[in-house]
Structure formats: C-alpha cells, structure tokens
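Progress narrative, work stream C.
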Amino acid sequence: VIVTIPSSCQKDPFGQSSSRFVVRPVQQQDLSEVAKILAESFHLQPDFMRWLIPIMRMGIYEDLRNRWRSASPDYACLVALDTTYREGQAGYLVGTVEIGLRSANPWQPRTSQYAYLSNLAVHPASRRRGVAYQLLVACDRAVLAWGFQDIYLHVLENNHQARKLYLKGNYRVAAADPNWGFWFFGQPRRLFLHKNLRERKLS
C-alpha cells in the first residue's frame, strides 16, 4: 500500500508553504522513529510522569520489531513520510498506524476474523495537516485488498480530537466499555468504533 498525498495549503510548521506526504509499509530502519512517535503520543498525567517516555520507547521498539519480523500477510504497519527537504534530509517520518486481523472467537479464529486498527500517531509538529486521515485512507485500501469490508478500533471517550478524526473517516460507535472504570477509578471509557467500507466508495 503506497499512497502519495498532496498536502493542504496550510503552512508547513518547518517553514514550507506546501509539502507532500507518502504512505508506505514500515521498513526496519523506521522502527526507532516509529517507537519515538508512539511513545510521545501517550497522554501522561501529571506531566512529571513524562520521564517514563524513554522507557516506554524501548518497550514499544521491541514490540514493533517482533511484529515486523513475524508479520503475516494480513498485518501492516504503515508510515507517513514528509518528502520535503529539511535539514539535509528528504522523506522524514511524521506518522504511523497499524492494521491487522483479530479473532472475535478464539475457538474459530479463521471464521471470525475482523480488521482492527491500532497505534495511530502523528508527530506533534505535523498534526492538523491531514496526515492521520491519509493513514486511515491507506488502511481502508489495505483492508479491501485483504477481502474485508469492515474495520474496528478503540478510542478513549475523552479523546475528543481522535473521535472527531474517526467521525470524519466514517467510523461510528459500535459498543462501549461499562461505566464502572470511570466511577471507581476515574478512568475514561473505551469506545469500540466500526466502519463499513461498502458505505463509502474509495476514490
């Protein structure tokens, strides 16, 4: 899955008035930067807990490397690259997402599989430029190529920015975790979102 994406006319945070993005499968040399973007995307409260980020980054890197090494045909880690020239480098990584198959019934894994999207993250300097949405579009294409028509994902109920993005991408709430986690521990609920690809023809 390789998608070339013209950017919007919004100002590039690195000083460029326009740029281009390319979405492609992750490569081994990308894994460290992907782990960094994922670790920095976690909302750690209070702020002093951010000292955990380097530790989290190491764990995320090992998980990514293991998934990359043992990847099945029905798994993809995609990255978005900004192809504009910056600091002697063209094609620097600005976002990532993973898409794969999960089984609703562990006793019948092949007959109850569904496409599941996870770990969508964009570098803070490249947000609000359409990168995340284009990663979602690339996932749509991958899932259709696998012969599936539906995609699912989880999002926290209080993550309003992400929910707005998924709503734009035609995801709808299919289920929600019980409220007991919020009432007893103050934790937001997870929402289980669903998108049917037949409802919107991809260009």
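Work stream C, second folded protein:
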Amino acid sequence: MALLVALAAAGAVVLLLGPPPPAAAPSPPPPVAAPSPDADGVLRRGRWLWAVLAGGGAAAFLGGALALPAGVAVGVVVGVVAGRLEPAAVRRRRDEVRRDLPHVVTLLAAALRSGVAPVEAIDLVCRALPGSAADRLGPIAARLRLGGDPSTIWGALASDPELAPLGRTLARAHRTGAPVVGAVERLGEELARRGRAEVEDRARAIGVRAAVPLGVCLLPSFLVLGIVPLAVALASTITG
C-alpha cells in the first residue's frame, strides 16, 4: 500500500511540474555569448529525478492519509527549487567577467587611445585577456566586422548583466557623438574605484566574521586562566 501511495505521489509530481522543455531549435549565435547549457548543475539537470524521489520518499515515509498530499507537496517544492538553482559554472563565469571587466575596459581605452578602431581594439583585448569576458566580447567584434549597426550592437551589449556598464558607455558615446576614448577611460577609472571599494568592504567583512570564531577559540583559555583560578581561590577562602 505504501508503495502504491508513493508511486501515486510521484505521478502527481510529474503531472504538476509539466513535461520537460523541448530542445531549442538551432538559432544564430547571440550577440553576447551565453553560458553553455551543459554548465547546468547536477541538481538542475536532474530536477525531475530528485522531485520524484523526494515526493515518493516522503509519501512512503509518512504513510496514512497525509502520505499523498505531503509527497506531492515535497516533490513540487524540490522540483521548483532545483530548477531555480544557479549552476556553479554559471556563477563562476559571472564572477570572472565582473573581476575582469575593469582590466578589459582599461585595455580597451589604451587601444582606442592609440588610434585603433573599436572592432580592432576589441579583438586586441580579447587576445590579450582571454577568459569569460573575452568570450562574450568576441561575437561583438564579429558583428561589427560584418557591418552590423553599432547602435544595435552596443544596445545588445548593454543588456548583458555583467558587461552592461561598457555597453551603455559605448552606446551613449555613439548616440551623442562624444569621444569614445574619454568615455571608456572614465568608465575604467570608475570601475577601478568601485573594485577597490569592494575589496575594502570584503576585508572589513572578513574581520567582522572572524571576530566570533576567534572569540570562541579564546573563550576556553579565558575560562581556564581567568575564571577557574578565581573561583578556586574564592572557594578556598570561603571553606578555609
């Protein structure tokens, strides 16, 4: 009976979560390279399996009248949560892009200052600083080289969550006709200041977080060297 209830709960979880999304049809490469679907974590790729196992396990464990609704609820929650988890590979790529962005902007400003065209400057930056940021900027240079509309391309770059500051700066300079070199240099200085401020904030946060473990480590020695002798001396005085 418990097995039947568990199977019913698993089936209900499958029906509530719906069928898995169909494979996307091949499409032209996007203007900004996105993380590969293969980078999905184990929990996200196997969310159907975890949801069914969790729902069936909860139903089999509880039994009785609450088995089916509890199993369905647990399975749905596990499926939804597992589907929304950000894969570790995507998180690492995002952090790498944010970390490299100030250096990318600084190199781009130097290349533009030397008189290189934007498309050649982006190519130089991608070759000089390979990584996740270069992977996203590569398609931008390719589209510019093929004669794409710069305003559309910079707008697409501005929609990238990590490269948005650079995209907005280039789009604004193209729209207003302002010198792109000065705009990129100012962005590089701003990103450098922001990066230094974030490093200082993290350093202060580490000091605050380290205070509690350090206090816990020092507490036994404080008790042994300070409180225990005082208590022993006080007890000896009272009893003596």
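The chain has two domains: 2-18+27-85, 91-194. No further action is required on this item.
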